[in-house]
């Protein structure tokens, strides 16, 4: 039978052309006081990689040069959670990764438990602290503890076939191209510019950028060395970064917390879509889902129907949205066996 309609699942939710997440390492008070109002203005949610051992306390000296900063407490964390922010574990103590005798059960498992208690949410992601030296030891523990993925430190533009256990994350700035040729932590360059001309539709199309920063403030505490600005920025620069992201893609941007993207991706990869024609102007699309962890709680998928029909109704409702290649696009919650009735109009 000639098929006059085909359906696939969009790589990103709402068939977005670009996905952007911004992450704040450590979980310091400035995220609430300085960053949160800027995020509200741009309609972009934030994500904090939280060190769980110091909630409501001042930072200890070990393993950092961000001396004297204060961590969010549980009330402040809940305030942000209630406004759509999410939290990953950034270890319990931020122990230097080269130290002998590191207790990874404490850093990986206990921190998940503590953060779930503090946020009231499932904590699905762990974020490497310091560097990636312990990755081979952390990943098996993280899988067993029920995490769904890892935020790493790497080239920050991920394709839709990214590895959930190796999500690229970095701060981009003046010389992203130079960094690609010679990767190093010198990618931290956003102290003076936002994304100085780096983000274009051409180089971001189809990608997920996971941006990385730390403290957002006008001044850092006096004991913090000047070099720490390499991974922190001022509120004005954060504002410019978020404005630039919005400007490049407008409504075709998916401003997402990392969990949104990981859940969508795991759901998409487990989904199979079948279409059966029921005559020239009617078809049924069936979704089968493979095994998925319970922690994958966001269960919306975006579908694209390619057809020569002039218009389409899904389950009786007309679909207005079209993708760039003319497919009809709709987003809906799915379970194993979900069916959509597609009709020509
Ligand atoms: Zn850190």
What does the model show?
It is globular and about 70 Å long. Strands 2, 3, 4, 7, 8 and 9 form a 6-stranded mixed beta sheet that branches. With 345 residues, the chain is α/β, with parallel strands linked by helices. Helix 1 runs parallel beside helix 7 (235-249) and helix 3 (104-119) packs across helix 4. Mean pLDDT is 90; it is low at 183-192. It has 8 helices and 16 strands. The protein binds zinc ion (ZN). The site of zinc ion has 5 residues, from strand 2.
Summarize this, please?
This protein folds into two domains: about 90 residues; about 250 residues, Glycoside hydrolase/deacetylase (TIM Barrel, Alpha-Beta Barrel). It contains eight helices and 16 strands. The protein is α/β, with parallel strands linked by helices and about 350 residues long.
